[in-house]
Amino acid sequence: MLRLLEQIFSRAGYQVQVATNGREGLCQFNDHQPDLVILDVMMPIMDGWQTCSYIRRLANTPIIMLTALGWEDDVIRGLDSGAVDYVVKPFSSKVLLARAKVALRQAKPPSKPEKPALYDDGYLTIDLDEHRVFVRGEPLRLTATEYRLLAYLFQNAGKLLTPQQILENVWGWTREDDGECVRVYIWHLRRKLEQDPKNPQYLLTEHGTGYRFLKNPPQEQARRNSLIERPLLLQAAL
To answer: What is the pLDDT of residues 77-108, one digit of tens each?
Structure first.
């Protein structure tokens, strides 16, 4: 079925990413940010209901449920979960393509904030509109996951975020034993943007609780203030 769907959409001019279960599907969703999701219900590891719910928390991407479950209650559950359409197997490839075109046409582009999501303290610059990060004026090379993690922490600056919250909003799932994944990526970010990764000023750890992004770190702000005060002191001495 996966190969068949891949052929149908590829021949119609679409770029297709395939996943064999819900967990893998969420990873593909995070990595590729697709315009449309075709989702089965009966999948291993994470079923279609859970996958649909997680995707809907992350984005408004249109989802079409394509499944053998054709009972009225199943259709209602699928639409209530956030799917824009529900197709029951067996299906017509032409009808599925037509429904996909309708779903894409009706999808609304995400609204942009009225003001640019920009942060600049002289050392670190984060520009969410341009999807760019700078350290001391030099562009910082981040992976897609690292950028999403930094953006999520920055958008919630000052708030304490648990590993479960981060996993759910950045990776699209949450499991208690996956907290190590967050810790590793936090360390990667610190190595790239902190002056001293072992003594972080932006990405703080609340041991046993979670993580917090801090704007205008005290150490950096104090350094900048001292640079401003020096000429004034010299002038006073003169």
So the answer is: 888 888 899 999 888 999 999 999 989 888 76
How far is Cα 163 from Cα 121, in angstroms, rounded to an integer?
27
| Superfamily of structural domain 2-106 | Response regulator (3.40.50.2300)
Tokens of 18: 């395939």
The fold adopted by the segment(s) 118-222 is Arc Repressor Mutant, subunit A (1.10.10)
Is the whole model's pTM more than 0.70, yes or no?
A: no
Q: What is the C-alpha separation between 56 and 59, in angstroms, rounded?
A: 5
Spell out the domain ranges in the chain: 2-106, 118-222
- Whether omega before 90 lies within 30 degrees of 0, making that bond cis, reads yes
pLDDT tens for each residue of 113-126: 555 578 999 999 99
**Three state DSSP letters for the chain:** CHHHHHHHHHHCCCCCCCCCCHHHHHHHHHHHCCCCEEECCCCCCCCHHHHHHHHHHHCCCCEEEEECCCCHHHHHHHHHCCCCEEEECCCCHHHHHHHHHHHHHHCCCCCCCCCCCEEECCCEEEECCCCEEEECCEECCCCHHHHHHHHHHHHCCCCCECHHHHHHHHHCCCCHHHHHHHHHHHHHHHHHHCCCCCCCCCEEEECCCEEEECCCCHHHHHHHHHHHHHHHHHHHHC
Q: Taking residues 195-201, report their average pLDDT.
A: 93
